[in-house]
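User
New here, explain this?
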Amino acid sequence: MPSFDVVSKVDMQEVSNALQHTLKEISQRFDFKGSKSTVELVESELRVLADDDYKLDAVKTLLLTKLNKRGISPKSLEDGKVENASGGLLRQNIKIIQGLATEKSKEINKFIKEKKFKVTSEIHKDQLRVTGKNRDDLQLVIAELRTQNFGPPLQFINFRD
């Protein structure tokens, strides 16, 4: 029976590339001259350090622009609160959302059942597997899910006949 998986994953290599481009631009820009502003990747979080609010916003905007150019949606990021760091700096952690949360999986599952597609769906850890009798039904489900906003961006993988 044909099936596919609904997931929400971020390519960490692209995040790393965007981070390198951001750091390079920070080192070259005039408004960051003599600044201690930086961005680093710690596990699945981006840690932004800046001298003041203006520079923090500028670094975040620069980072989001670079991530967006690399195909990473801002919806896959979750901002933390701004904290004071040592040396009079400001710090903000930005969490990278990987996988579908159970609540989101249940919400998508409920949406599929309410639309009365001729498919079945079941939750497997951080993904949702959709199975149907023919591929046209599955393509209808994918098209309908793409029109909805469930928060983090969805990818459709492992399409099997």
Notes: The longest helix spans residues 12-28.
